[in-house]
Design goal:
The structure holds 2 protein chains of 2 kinds. Chain A is built from 11 helices and 21 strands. In chain A, the strands form 4 sheets. Chain A has a 9-stranded antiparallel beta sheet with strand order 6-2-3-4-19-18-17-11-15. Chain A is an alpha+beta fold. The longest helix of chain A is centred in the first third of the chain and has 17 residues, at about 5-25. Helices cover about 20% and strands about 25% of the residues of chain A. Chain B folds into 2 domains: about 1-155, Proliferating Cell Nuclear Antigen, CATH 3.70.10; about 165-295, Proliferating Cell Nuclear Antigen, CATH 3.70.10.10. Chain B has 5 helices and 17 strands. In chain B, the strands form 2 sheets. A 13-stranded antiparallel beta sheet of chain B has the order 5-1-7-8-9-6-2-3-4-17-16-15-10. In chain B, β15 and β16 (about 275-280) form a beta hairpin. Classes of the chains: A alpha+beta, B alpha+beta. The interface between A and B is medium-sized, with 24 and 32 residues. β14 of chain A pairs antiparallel with β9 (about 135-145) of chain B, so a sheet runs across the interface.
Chain lengths: ~450, ~300
């Protein structure tokens, strides 16, 4: 997979990464032929966040090698903070001209044994082309995870749809002085009535047992919402703020409104934010606060309330909110829209059938050898102005590869080790293969995210 | 026991709590008919620092009504952070909160009253405001309080201090803070010295290092001595060179310096070898709207 975007697209992309890193630690990337999705789930599986970039967002976008068939999407997992720290660096913002992101798949186990190289893992390569011909290349290891998590599609029959600008909702939440800190995970209780909305902090009934020193309640007109299609009044839901705040921050900095949808309190909350050539989906688990009005859809007694506090009596601790995400092997579901309104569109964007390990092509091995990028500029047919770091040989055309062979260096017959030893340099260009279909073996254990190479 | 008032000047109230919060998690607020007193006198305080402040009711509240069996005084114990949370959500033209979290609700009215919710005494703040879209919004905060028993209230008393030896107007607290922060890593004790010729000196003296920082030309206000003795005119003028000093804990002095957020003017009074009293004026000195008084006891060093 290869995607290039220029400096104007850097900001939304970086903001998306910042939001993702507030949701969860491990980021999944799924690249299909039409879209690039970045998504993650938080550690208690009670919040999910997905950014889907259309290929129009990028100045260049290519997944797979059309010549070789197999349009399977590319999938990988890495630490969100690793990618964020590369792109968020202040010099990057000032000097970036374009950014190329490419994913290079790892080889299957059998081939790795033959070649004894580190190609088992896939790599994400970020190449930042900056001013003054500076090119910074970052390589991050991608792990292929066995469990993919994706939210289920909601039942829309009793759905409430609200639309609100980010500033308005931020003003509401700001009235609550909530404890800030890594361990704190405040919740707010929202009650939606016919004409008014009220928000309370969770321990709003200060009693002698609770430790809260401050309880806050806000009452505001429903007109603050640009769209207020309440299914049934009154509806009361409660959810944690940590991820919600990340969403609001993202929407505010991009100047986009939020579409909030929910059904009953035990079903999660869906938030859509749509931008220029990208759309985002956030799913946050909700619960019905004790003592609130029950409705026609009775909430189950063991609410899916997640709790991070260490209360021994609370047996709901770390209970997975199963409704937010569920395991799926269906890659198509990763990119699938869950918005009912867009369901017609999503069908056309439906991704291909679930991944099966694709058989590697036979000329795989020999191609690998010849695709080492030479460090000898004279034989290179690459760009006229010599960049500091030679571009990956995925950009080598067949002609270039032929040139390599003709150069008589004998590089093409070297193994990785010999090549490395020859150059005695660390952080060489990894063996790059041109568009290979992805074939994550289902037996492979998910490893914790990538480390930055080089 | 009844208490109800409108808050006119949220900024001042907030700033007072902000300064005090750095000293102690909880504080005592005593409401009387004329004044509001904010007291921090916990023994656990670093270096024994205490704060006793007196603020005229008129400078913060309007429509003030108080009634109780103890001489119409109500004394409560509460958490600084909680009351700050309640005050923070009110936006004022002077900006209570920092710009990053400025509320964009226009405040119409803030009412504070004593209430009971679920058998728990609270200070209830009702804020009515207008949103950016011109609609009404209502925010209610309940700050949990503990009403103090008259017995305990009677035990509250300001520390006894002799007549100060010298008063000096301190330079910018922010600048002093930068200096003292450096000194903190070197020593636990700090000597605060002042002389009548306008010299203020902060010194540390340890086995390994000796540092003196001098500020010259500080104003030495002539304070009227209370109960001025009849012979005041006969007293010889004090020696301009003589330095009156008091040794205090660096950490407690730093805690006091964190009140730089509120201070416009600060006067330090040195009671040689006894204590350091610091009067931090909130707002204009002339207004006498409020004073935060810090007491830092001296540490007797035998050297």
């Amino acid at each position: 997979m290869q995607a290039t975007f220029d400096s104007s697209a850097l900001k939304p992309f970086t903001r998306a990464l910042a939001c993702l890193s507030r949701y969860g630690e491990e980021l999944c990337i799924y690249a299909s032929s039409e879209t690039l999705s970045l998504f993650c789930t938080n550690s208690s599986k009670s919040a999910y966040c997905r950014f889907k970039f259309n290929k129009e967002f990028f100045s260049k976008y290519r997944v797979g090698d059309p010549a070789r068939g197999a349009h399977d999407g590319v999938l990988g997992q890495l630490m969100a903070k690793s990618l964020l720290s590369i792109l968020k660096h202040k010099t990057v913002e000032l000097t970036l001209e374009r950014c190329e992101i490419s994913i290079v798949e790892g080889v299957s186990a059998e081939e790795a044994a033959d070649e004894s190289q580190d190609g088992l893992e896939s790599k994400l390569i970020v190449r930042l082309h900056c001013k003054h011909n500076v090119i910074k290349t970052h390589k991050l290891l991608l792990s292929g995870s066995t469990t993919l998590l994706a939210p289920g599609a909601p039942d829309t029959s009793n759905e409430t749809l609200l639309r609100i600008g980010p500033r308005a909702i931020r003003d509401m939440i700001e009235q609550f002085s909530l404890p800030k800190g890594v361990k704190s995970d405040p919740q707010l209780i929202w009650t939606f009535g016919e004409t008014d909305v009220s928000v309370r902090s969770l321990e709003s009934s200060i009693d002698t047992r609770s430790k809260a020193q401050l309880a806050t309640e806000l009452a505001i007109s429903a007109d603050e919402f640009d769209l207020y299609n309440l299914h049934e009044a009154p509806t009361t839901i409660a959810f944690h703020l940590r991820e919600f705040n990340a969403t609001i921050a993202f929407a505010e900095i991009c100047g986009l409104g939020l579409d909030i949808r929910f059904t009953d309190p035990t079903e999660p909350l869906f938030i859509d934010v749509e931008g220029d050539n990208f759309e985002t989906l956030f799913v946050i688990s909700t619960s019905q606060p004790p003592g609130s009005a029950t409705q026609t859809h009775l909430a189950s007694t063991d609410s899916k309330k997640r709790s991070r506090e260490d209360t021994p009596a609370d047996s709901a601790r770390f209970k997975k909110s199963m409704k937010v995400v569920q395991s799926t092997t269906d890659r198509a579901s990763l990119a699938r829209d869950t918005t009912p309104a867009r369901s017609t569109l999503s069908l056309s964007k439906q991704m291909l059938p679930p991944a099966n390990p694709a058989t590697p092509t036979s000329n795989h091995v020999s191609n690998y050898q010849s695709s080492h990028a030479p460090h000898l500029a004279s034989t290179s047919k690459l760009s006229q102005e010599l960049p500091l770091f030679l571009p990956g040989s995925s950009q080598l055309s067949i002609l270039d590869e032929a040139a390599l062979r003709e150069s008589g260096l004998g590089i093409e017959h070297m193994t990785a080790e010999e090549f490395d030893n020859m150059l005695e340099a660390k952080g060489d260009e990894p063996p790059v293969r041109t568009g290979r279909p992805c074939h994550f073996s289902s037996n492979r254990l998910a490893r914790p995210g990538g480390r930055t190479m080089n | 026991m009844r208490f109800r008032a409108g808050i006119e000047n949220v900024t001042t109230f907030f700033r007072i709590m902000q300064s005090v919060e750095k000293l102690q998690k909880k504080c005592i607020i005593k409401f009387t008919e004329e004044n509001m007193h904010v007291i921090c006198n916990s023994d656990a305080n670093e270096g024994g620092i205490q704060v006793w402040s007196q603020i005229k009711i008129d400078s913060i509240f309007n429509n003030y009504r108080i009634q109780s069996n103890s001489n119409n005084e109500i004394t409560v114990n509460l958490t600084c952070e909680a009351i700050m949370g309640a005050l923070r959500s009110v936006s004022t033209s002077s900006g209570v909160s920092n710009s990053a979290s400025g509320s964009s609700y226009e405040t119409d009215e803030v009412i504070v009253k004593l209430a009971k919710k679920n058998d728990q005494a609270v200070l209830n703040f009702e804020i009515t405001g207008t949103t950016a879209g011109g609609r009404k919004v209502k925010i209610g905060h309940d700050v949990r309080i503990e009403v103090m028993k008259p017995v305990d209230v009677a035990r509250l008393s300001e520390p006894m201090c002799p007549e100060p030896d010298i008063h000096v107007l301190l330079p910018s607290l922010q600048k002093m803070r930068t200096i003292v922060e450096r000194l903190r890593t070197q020593s636990d004790l700090l000597a605060v010295r002042a002389s009548h010729n306008g010299c203020l000196r902060l010194s540390i003296n340890t086995e390994s290092v000796k540092v003196d920082t001098d500020w010259k030309d500080c104003t030495i206000p002539q304070m009227m001595k209370e109960g001025a003795s009849q012979d005041s005119a006969d007293e010889p003028p004090p020696d301009p060179e003589q330095l009156f000093s008091v040794l205090v804990s660096v950490k407690s002095f730093l805690k006091f310096l964190s009140s730089h957020v509120v201070s416009t003017t600060t006067i330090a009074c040195v009671c040689q070898n006894h204590c350091l009293i610091l009067y931090v004026y909130i707002g204009d000195v002339a207004d006498a709207g409020g004073v935060l008084t810090f007491y830092i006891p001296a540490i007797i060093d035998d050297e």
